[in-house]
Amino acid sequence: MSDPTRWPGLKRGLVAILRGITPSEAETAAEILIEEGFEALEVPLNSPDPLQSIGRMVRGFGDRALIGGGTMLSVAHVDQVADQGGRLMVSPNMRPAVIRHAVARGMVTMPGVLTPTEAFDALDAGAAGLKFFPASLMGPAGIQALMAVLPKGTVVGAVGGVTPENMADYLRAGVTTFGMGTAVYRPGDSADEIRRKARALVAAYDANFPA
Question: Cα–Cα distance between 48 and 23 in angstroms, integer?
């Protein structure tokens, strides 16, 4: 039986970070992103009414995408998102207790790390993947160097400063998962704008991901 807390076999390692989205926009944005090829959606908890947005997205699309919260800093945040049906826990930092609690709630976890110590501590706590953040500080070369010591098969994500133009550099370094923020959604974006951005990112991923 597969473990629901491990990183799922997504066709594309693209996570839409919908920071600032409102509940009234959530379902439309989720539908567009899923149609364009995103399979993971994250609503940071410093967005307006984030739990309501997560709940709406889960009820409408939870069977078609991995949906959950970002900027999850505490055990309480984990419970709040899990109680809405969220299955994805993303954070900018690394707290073993928060990771362990999310795993216990059956969530897929991707905490933020920037050093070897944080990376190994996160894996020891049961993290499904590692989010190098902000990726722009390390760049593809820095992440690639650190990956040389990580266990084989570790899911490595890059967040912060990744664009369709530089995605290929990260892919060549071994990164397989990307959290896309303003590159896919900015508060106030129209449905057409979200679709245009999503389509460009999916095209860049498909063009550059090694077969």
Answer: 8
